[in-house]
Amino acid sequence: MKNLLSMEHLSNEEIMMILNRAQHFENGGNPVLQREFHVANLFFEPSTRTKTSFEMAERRLGCTVIPFDAEFSSTTKGETLYDTVKTLEMIGIDAVVIRDKEDEYYNELLEGIGCAVINAGDGAGQHPSQSLLDLYTIQKEFGRFEDLNITIVGDISHSRVAKSNATALTRLGANVRFLCPPAWAGNFEAAHSWDEVLEDSDVIMLLRIQHERHSVSKNFSKESYHAEYGLTIEREQRMKERAIIMHPAPVNRDVEIADALVECSRSRIFEQVRNGVFTRMAILETILKGRDQYDNSYTKCEATQ
Ligand code: NCD
């Protein structure tokens, strides 16, 4: 695996290998890396969890983390993402973790870049490391994916988490359903009432409304969204006995989930954050371990010859 760009590029076998490796790290296992690697985290959109989690994973693998501050980088002077990443490569960076507001920003890095690229979120496209940590959380809970009813609730069409998880979970045999306001279903077929999905769901995965990706506001007040699509205390009481609540966070309390449920016994929201470090260690190790087998001396001129 040279890069991690989209869940669509991973086979079920590759997914399961990463989850097994995450388990190895959670159990206290050591990484197998042949040398010290240099990694930079390029976040052009806000992040608390993903950025810190990647940085923790990099440090636990013994990597050197080279600071990169998007706000003070030369991208603000008009430098392209390609030139930025190429520059970091020439300085000696082995891998870049990137979050950007453009869908598939990584396409411009596919030719001519020798650094490994790990996608930490591309616009409303994909968020593969979040998906892998979600899969790890579900696997730890149920020991399988087959025949689980997994309901993803909220701003489906603007959510990279929904898309990455829908792809992977369906392929792994889960029954993925969606619940959202009709305008946010995108290409998915979605239920529009909790009654259709609440009582037989094994996993309820809530999503934040992606206001930053809306061209026009859908005019939901916090209260009306919570009443119609939020996980209220009353709804939580109707969930199946062993069913769990997930949310990639950041959470807006009392909007997509009642304040009192964020840390209730069914909630895995903070457990997901914890699992994220082991999963990202597994992703980074898999990519870095294979790195020296690629020819990284490739330049754009050679690519066009
Ligand atoms: C998500 C993201 O950035 O896509 N957050 C995360 O990485 N944990 C979800 C969101 O912002 O709502």
TrEMBL record:
<dbReference type="Pfam" id="PF00185">
    <property type="entry name" value="OTCace"/>
</dbReference>
<feature type="binding site">
    <location>
        <position position="49"/>
    </location>
    <ligand>
        <name>carbamoyl phosphate</name>
    </ligand>
</feature>
<comment type="pathway">
    <text>Pyrimidine metabolism; UMP biosynthesis via de novo pathway; (S)-dihydroorotate from bicarbonate: step 2/3.</text>
</comment>
<dbReference type="GO" id="GO:0044205">
    <property type="term" value="P:'de novo' UMP biosynthetic process"/>
</dbReference>
<feature type="binding site">
    <location>
        <position position="130"/>
    </location>
    <ligand>
        <name>carbamoyl phosphate</name>
    </ligand>
</feature>
<dbReference type="GO" id="GO:0006520">
    <property type="term" value="P:amino acid metabolic process"/>
</dbReference>
<dbReference type="InterPro" id="IPR006131">
    <property type="entry name" value="Asp_carbamoyltransf_Asp/Orn-bd"/>
</dbReference>
<keyword id="KW-0665">Pyrimidine biosynthesis</keyword>
<dbReference type="GO" id="GO:0006207">
    <property type="term" value="P:'de novo' pyrimidine nucleobase biosynthetic process"/>
</dbReference>
<feature type="binding site">
    <location>
        <position position="50"/>
    </location>
    <ligand>
        <name>carbamoyl phosphate</name>
    </ligand>
</feature>
<feature type="binding site">
    <location>
        <position position="77"/>
    </location>
    <ligand>
        <name>L-aspartate</name>
    </ligand>
</feature>
<comment type="similarity">
    <text>Belongs to the aspartate/ornithine carbamoyltransferase superfamily. ATCase family.</text>
</comment>
<feature type="binding site">
    <location>
        <position position="127"/>
    </location>
    <ligand>
        <name>carbamoyl phosphate</name>
    </ligand>
</feature>
<dbReference type="Pfam" id="PF02729">
    <property type="entry name" value="OTCace_N"/>
</dbReference>
<feature type="binding site">
    <location>
        <position position="250"/>
    </location>
    <ligand>
        <name>carbamoyl phosphate</name>
    </ligand>
</feature>
<comment type="function">
    <text>Catalyzes the condensation of carbamoyl phosphate and aspartate to form carbamoyl aspartate and inorganic phosphate, the committed step in the de novo pyrimidine nucleotide biosynthesis pathway.</text>
</comment>
<feature type="domain" description="Aspartate/ornithine carbamoyltransferase carbamoyl-P binding">
    <location>
        <begin position="2"/>
        <end position="139"/>
    </location>
</feature>
<comment type="subunit">
    <text>Heterododecamer (2C3:3R2) of six catalytic PyrB chains organized as two trimers (C3), and six regulatory PyrI chains organized as three dimers (R2).</text>
</comment>
<dbReference type="GO" id="GO:0005829">
    <property type="term" value="C:cytosol"/>
</dbReference>
<protein>
    <recommendedName>
        <fullName>Aspartate carbamoyltransferase</fullName>
        <ecNumber>2.1.3.2</ecNumber>
    </recommendedName>
</protein>
<dbReference type="InterPro" id="IPR036901">
    <property type="entry name" value="Asp/Orn_carbamoylTrfase_sf"/>
</dbReference>
<feature type="binding site">
    <location>
        <position position="160"/>
    </location>
    <ligand>
        <name>L-aspartate</name>
    </ligand>
</feature>
<feature type="binding site">
    <location>
        <position position="99"/>
    </location>
    <ligand>
        <name>carbamoyl phosphate</name>
    </ligand>
</feature>
<feature type="domain" description="Aspartate/ornithine carbamoyltransferase Asp/Orn-binding">
    <location>
        <begin position="147"/>
        <end position="286"/>
    </location>
</feature>
<feature type="binding site">
    <location>
        <position position="208"/>
    </location>
    <ligand>
        <name>L-aspartate</name>
    </ligand>
</feature>
<dbReference type="InterPro" id="IPR006130">
    <property type="entry name" value="Asp/Orn_carbamoylTrfase"/>
</dbReference>
<dbReference type="GO" id="GO:0016597">
    <property type="term" value="F:amino acid binding"/>
</dbReference>
<keyword id="KW-0808">Transferase</keyword>
<feature type="binding site">
    <location>
        <position position="249"/>
    </location>
    <ligand>
        <name>carbamoyl phosphate</name>
    </ligand>
</feature>
<dbReference type="InterPro" id="IPR002082">
    <property type="entry name" value="Asp_carbamoyltransf"/>
</dbReference>
<dbReference type="GO" id="GO:0004070">
    <property type="term" value="F:aspartate carbamoyltransferase activity"/>
</dbReference>
<dbReference type="InterPro" id="IPR006132">
    <property type="entry name" value="Asp/Orn_carbamoyltranf_P-bd"/>
</dbReference>
